[in-house]
Write a sequence for this structure.
């Protein structure tokens, strides 16, 4: 079956040039677990090629291999001829959506995720579950042990919920402490606002403390990564236009985010809207301003914290920070500015943790296999804390730690910095 000519499809050089060298197999987490060509980047490229050439039907089985990819980008990085199997897998999901649109995806990402107020309402039961003491009761009575394994793991990944989403309480403008040297736009990600409010509040405190006036537009929508992961590229463009316009109106010098996934998506807006004459230039200008918070802080004169944190700390590289944004030194350097921290490298720190957004839900077995390896590596460090700048990774690591009953705290690097500032003040 040949595909309609009108379909926007991956460029041929994205898959035709594969020389089948197999280098990508050595870095692929799904191939490492199954040793099966079909679960490898090379296998996915071959399947995509046959599907696009009309030699194979774009069947649910073929598309499933595209969804089984963790989008960790390790294959894109290592390929000697520039094939991007991870990108191709995501594009194939888009092709399938164009041919056979799934109504529920549009309803989920366009109707719910796109509207912050609806997301806040939809997650209210989670906040009540914790705030009314139900979670405490579940753990005190050991009820969670009766949950089916996957539900138990999904419950375990829930962080401590804020009373209200941060979007509702954070002021639109947070003045710099002292002289203001920069106007920083803060992109508050959905998961940060809903689940990691205290972390992002810490990020804003740290920025303000370091002479930044922080502007947080309240009407930002999701960065678009969840929609992209499910082939909804038209929706991603909608998200991008909304967010670009909001930050243009805020006239900021840079746009900072403390979510690795959001950061990698925002930096891609220029490419995503490159074919739209009205938006191409604006999107490129916006993306050029985007910085991960650790990247930004290490580029300005940063106040050294006076407080000490006595802890052995290790670090997990989020794929969308290390590979998509090439940011890996800055979070390490930032944490090592704090006196008392005994930093230890995590073996295979740049291997995926198995989260990939929703793989613990959609590909539970594989996600756990990948997570198990991460936990073995974590155990070998004897660390008391593991830092990571991505909410998805943090939740996945929390699940792994609870499964293994390890005594390790999961933190964001900027939260550590904020703690060190606070300890320094109380010690004075
Ligand atoms: S995708 Fe790249 S690394 Fe993988 S087999 Fe093809 S050419 Fe080699
Ligand atoms: S992105 Fe990661 S999981 Fe997907 S094919 Fe590449 S290496 Fe494998």
């Amino acid at each position: 079956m040949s595909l309609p000519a009108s379909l926007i499809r991956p460029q041929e050089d994205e898959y035709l040039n594969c020389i089948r060298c197999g280098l990508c197999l050595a870095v692929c987490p799904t191939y490492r677990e199954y040793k099966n060509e079909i679960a490898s980047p090379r296998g996915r490229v071959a399947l995509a090629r046959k599907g696009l050439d009309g030699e194979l039907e774009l069947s649910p089985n073929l598309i499933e291999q595209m969804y089984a990819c963790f989008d960790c980008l390790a294959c894109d990085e290592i390929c000697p001829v520039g094939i991007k199997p991870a990108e191709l897998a995501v594009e194939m999901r888009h092709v399938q959506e164009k041919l056979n649109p799934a109504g529920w995806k549009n309803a989920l990402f366009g109707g719910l995720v796109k509207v912050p107020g609806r997301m806040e309402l939809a997650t209210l039961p989670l906040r009540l579950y914790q705030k009314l003491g139900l979670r405490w009761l579940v753990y005190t009575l050991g009820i969670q042990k009766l949950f089916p394994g996957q539900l138990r793991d999904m419950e375990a990944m829930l962080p401590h919920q804020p009373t209200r989403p941060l979007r509702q309480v954070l002021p639109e403008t947070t003045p710099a402490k002292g002289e203001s040297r920069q106007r920083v736009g803060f992109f508050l990600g959905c998961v940060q606002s809903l689940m990691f409010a205290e972390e992002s509040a810490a990020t804003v405190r740290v920025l303000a403390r370091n002479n930044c006036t922080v502007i947080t537009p309240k009407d930002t929508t999701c960065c678009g990564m969840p929609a992209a992961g499910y082939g909804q590229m038209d929706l991603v463009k909608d998200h991008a236009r909304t967010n670009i316009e909001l930050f243009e109106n805020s006239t900021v010098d840079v746009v900072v985010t403390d979510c690795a996934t959001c950061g990698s998506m925002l930096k891609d807006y220029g490419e995503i809207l490159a074919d739209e004459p009205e938006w191409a230039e604006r999107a490129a200008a916006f993306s050029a301003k985007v910085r991960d918070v650790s990247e930004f802080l290490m580029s300005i004169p940063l106040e050294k914290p006076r407080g000490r944190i006595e802890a052995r700390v290790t670090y997990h590289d989020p794929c969308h920070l290390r590979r998509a944004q090439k940011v890996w030194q800055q979070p390490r350097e930032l944490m090592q500015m704090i006196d008392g921290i005994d930093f230890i490298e995590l073996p295979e720190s740049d291997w995926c943790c198995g989260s990939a957004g929703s793989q613990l839900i959609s590909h539970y077995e594989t996600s756990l296999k990948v997570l198990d390896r991460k936990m073995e590596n974590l155990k070998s460090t004897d660390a008391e804390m593991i830092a990571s700048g991505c909410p998805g990774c943090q939740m996945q690591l929390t699940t792994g730690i609870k499964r293994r009953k390890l005594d390790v705290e999961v933190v964001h690097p900027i939260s550590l910095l904020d703690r060190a500032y606070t300890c320094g003040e109380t010690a004075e």
Observations:
- Strands lie at 173-174, 182-186, 212-215, 254-257, 290-292, 308-315, 339-343, 385-387, 409-411.
- The first strand starts at residue 173 and ends at 174.
- The chain has a mean pLDDT of 92.
- The radius of gyration is 22 Å.
